[in-house]
């Protein structure tokens, strides 16, 4: 139960980082990554995955 970021599509805009309710998103090695152990798919916080909702690049925050 986690989302992932497609690194080749991520523009490193940073929009997703602060929207994540579990602070699962971090900047590392020139891109943003989601910690699969921390990501809850926003369960219990939001009805939709916030990273995917705010990401300006389609299909970049996706189900892992
Ligand atoms: S799905 Fe939700 S909990 Fe998981 S990384 Fe995205 S914003 Fe964070
Ligand atoms: S919002 Fe999308 S493009 Fe921006 S840092 Fe997050 S995954 Fe990358």
TrEMBL record:
Species of provenance: Roseiarcus fermentans
Protein name per UniProt: 4Fe-4S binding protein
Keyword list, A-Z: 4Fe-4S, Electron transport, Iron, Iron-sulfur, Metal-binding, Transport
Keyword 4Fe-4S attached: yes
Cofactor(s) the record lists: [4Fe-4S] cluster
Molecular function as annotated in GO: 4 iron, 4 sulfur cluster binding; metal ion binding
PROSITE patterns xref list: 4FE4S_FER_1, 4FE4S_FER_2
Signal peptide location: none
TM helices/strands, residue ranges: none
Location of the 4Fe-4S ferredoxin-type domain: 1-30
